[in-house]
Amino acid sequence: MELSIPILYQDESLLVINKPAGILVHRSEATSRLEPAILQIMRDRVGCRLYPVHRLDRPTSGVLILALNGDTAAHLGQQFAAHLCEKRYLAVVRGWAPESTTITHALSDLEDESAPAQAAETGLQRLATIELEFSVDRYPRTRYSLVSMQPSTGRRHQLRRHCKSIFHPIIGDSIYGHGIHNRFFRENYGISRLLLHHEELKLRHPLSGEWLQFCAPLDQDWQKILAAFSWSLQDK
Prior knowledge:
Blueprint: E1 7-10, E2 14-19, H1 38-46, E3 51-52, E4 61-67, H2 70-81, E5 86-94, E6 100-103, E7 122-132, E8 142-151, H3 158-165, H4 179-189, E9 196-204, E10 211-215, H5 220-228
Parallel strand pairs: 4-9
Antiparallel strand pairs: 1-2, 2-4, 3-4, 5-8, 5-9, 6-7, 7-8, 9-10
């Protein structure tokens, strides 16, 4: 069965999709050549070579931009490198996150841990909370938060590592999260994915210079947890 990948926008320069969770953007030496990847799937679908502009981890869903030519890829890459793009992510985290904060925890290079830590900054706002009558960890009740995050830098795994640094790891994170909470969501809500979604991206079109805004709808797992926790994104 063909994987459903919604196209949010397409013109002669850009292809914008709503990336599903659990799929690679492109293969690497560490992955199987048989594993499906966004670049190959969408190349076959639109009939031309595609160029990745930015990175989304395999378990992360949401807005992903692909360029249809090298010049567009270079132009958009410069926008991302200069932090001219506005990005907004949604996540479900353990505990009650701060109402509003800016995380400035420097991050090491995951491929060269001997290199100096790099500056990294993420704005975070708490959108909703819930307290459940379950003792998932060592407390008699369990708390979770829905948060919005706006990274102004683009370090690898930045949002996941920043949430861990303030002791509010993202649910479903098998690397930086808490297995006991991940298991709770899997067993009680049938959700085993990372609850991190790139909801919105704003940037300038590489040809016209016009500001573009792309928004990616939430998938069924997200809709399920919003309904279970009576959380609404309206007016957020």
